[in-house]
Amino acid sequence: QVQLVESGGGLVQPGGSLRLSCVVSGFTLDNYAIAWFRQAPGQQREGVSCISSSDGNTYYGDSVKGRFTISRDNAKNTVYLQMNDLKPEDTAVYYCSLGRYYWGQGTQVTVSS
User: Fold this and answer.
1) Which pLDDT score, from 0 to 100, does residue 54 have?
2) Which pLDDT belongs to residue 56?
3) Nearest in space to 52 (alpha carbons), one of 75, 73, 35, 66
4) pLDDT above 80 for 76
5) Closest to 18 in 3D by CA, of 96, 82, 89
6) Nearest CA to 5 among 72, 84, 97, 82?
7) pLDDT tens digit string along 1-29?
8) Backbone angles phi, psi at 57, to 5 degrees
9) Among 18, 27, 45, 8, which residue's Cα sits nearest to residue 98?
10) Nearest in space to 91 (alpha carbons), one of 33, 59, 48
11) Which residues, in sequence order, are CB contacts of 101 under 8 Å at separation 6+?
12) In what order do the strands lie in the sheet with 3-7?
């Protein structure tokens, strides 16, 4: 069955970096776009970034543009989200998703001094 498993979250100081990973199984990653979303307490889930299947085109939300980078390694069935210059407002649970239908369990990112 389709599974997505996120990892790499943690506690980091403002200005720090983290790299999230989303390992997928049950489908061929090459054929699908994958997106990262996040949800802060009391907030709606928002789209962070997306990477297409074929040409590797990427999309970023305005709040993370220039700081976050999405990438994929199809051979490892993994999509990454490199997060630099983290800010307290980036604190949230981060999820990867296939088509907004399949979701991982999420990984907590906390940015605090």
Assistant:
1) 74
2) 81
3) 35
4) yes
5) 82
6) 97
7) 999 999 999 999 999 999 999 999 998 88
8) -60, 145
9) 27
10) 48
11) none
12) 3-7, 18-25, 78-83, 68-73
SS3 letters across the chain: CCEEEEECCEEECCCCCEEEEEEEECCCHHHCCEEEEEECCCCCCEEEEEECCCCCCEEECCCCCCCEEEEEEHHHCEEEEEECCCCHHHCEEEEEEECCCEECCCEEEEECC
- Residue 47 CA to residue 65 CA, distance in Å, equals 12
Is the confidence at residue 98, as pLDDT, over 90?
yes
Is the Cβ–Cβ distance between 4 and 96 less than 8 Å?
Answer: yes
pLDDT tens digits, one per residue of 33-74? 999 999 999 999 999 999 998 778 999 999 999 999 999 999
